[in-house]
Known about the structure:
Strand order of the largest sheet of chain A: 1-2-3-4-5-6-7-8
Oligomer: homodimer
Number of strands of chain A: 8
Shape of chain A: globular
Strand content of chain A: 15-25%
Mean pLDDT of chain A: 96
Structural class of chain A: alpha/beta
Amino acid sequence: MNSIRLFNQIKTKKSFLCVGLDTEFEKIPEGVRSAEQPQLEFNREIIQATYSQVIAYKINTAFYEARGAEGWKEMEQTVALIRSVDPEIMIIADAKRGDIGNTSEMYAKAFLDRMGVDAVTVSPYMGYDTVNAFLKRNDKWVIILAVTSNKSAEDFQFLKVNDSEVTLYEKVLLTSQQWGTVDNIIYVAGATRPEQILQIRRHIPDHFLLVPGIGAQGGSLEDVAKHGINSRCGLIVNTSRAVIFADPSRNFARTAHMKAVELQQQMESILKNYKLI
Amino acid sequence: MNSIRLFNQIKTKKSFLCVGLDTEFEKIPEGVRSAEQPQLEFNREIIQATYSQVIAYKINTAFYEARGAEGWKEMEQTVALIRSVDPEIMIIADAKRGDIGNTSEMYAKAFLDRMGVDAVTVSPYMGYDTVNAFLKRNDKWVIILAVTSNKSAEDFQFLKVNDSEVTLYEKVLLTSQQWGTVDNIIYVAGATRPEQILQIRRHIPDHFLLVPGIGAQGGSLEDVAKHGINSRCGLIVNTSRAVIFADPSRNFARTAHMKAVELQQQMESILKNYKLI
């Protein structure tokens, strides 16, 4: 998938919604939790209920690893399931990996080749080596952390570097832009700091941004759009808990559907306002 | 395990060697590669051949994830195997994770609680949230990336921050020291840049350092010891490929044993020179 195909999907679905499958075992409603494959079954219902509203699913690997090999298997099966429901949907492994060259190659193999997702999130601390393996695959993406949505993002990401006004996250943007293109690099830009999204856009007007932090973490969709939207939308806005765990009862899928429709409709009116559809 | 117990093990074994189980499927000699559980069987022979010489094993998660759920299972079984052979050996999951609070908690659960390793490597880019979950477990460690052994470590780790002479990796040391103690934080300090190990010791004289980059990556044991050793040794020196894949033949375990003995003997004489044993 390249950025044109992604934008086409946005126009077709009138949405730039990504639903995060942060499928925490303990939060799965009882009737599903006792299933043989609880995470897969929960995801199946969520996917059926939301796939018409989303352009991407983000699979948070931690929640599956917490169940060991069985969780990993259900993560793989979730990817296959999404593909079978709608092959155009972007699948993101939110894995936040990052290592030396030969190890990064193994992570690329694990997620892009074997599991078959479209994109993997990567931490930039170790530099170019950490992303190179992901850029070598055609039609695949690496998603580099720039500004994350958590409070302690401030510990290091906002430090000024090299006796300048440039912060570390801006330096990450500036340096990593040389490594790839708008068709294989996306950046994480947390919705909890919309003013930074504006700043990010000054450096990278054209790249897609993966924006977590709407919903449970408190970010606002309008602020994100105001500062981050570009001529091909350029936004993949993620929400996880606020959709998938909006309803703790056995009706979770119906509620997730309603939440997704609500967000899709807000996004549709944003896309219309900006004359993108 | 705390730092005193770790130092006791170093004195007992006269070694500060960590062997990295970067068990790349394609590099497993043919007779073992065709086994039902190839990574586990390879590791079994390596562990039997080296456990008397090592104080730690470092499991590089990428090499197991590249084989999906089956690889993950063999990683779990490898941990159990090490425990059964010698329960005092420190087991490190070299996972380079790092995420927001609730996700970090899941990673801590996956590796420290469920898989039962002693320590997990973490990238500091997202700040305190990424390590907090790991620090909440008794007798467990988080290993924070400071200076990595790869070339592109220079892209960001060596940037000067806040109009000062302090580099990003030094800022990571200074800030993260407040989060934990010498009994639950270890730092990664690559052997390929021994002069930085000296600099690291200026900031954190007492913490243990996990030092990758000896062997295949070209770092020297003598330089590492000269700059990094402290009154409780303070070093866990890792080598992976140079031991486990030193011999591509079916005799790999015997060769690995010889390589481990060689390194242990060098370490014994270093420990004697510094009057630690």
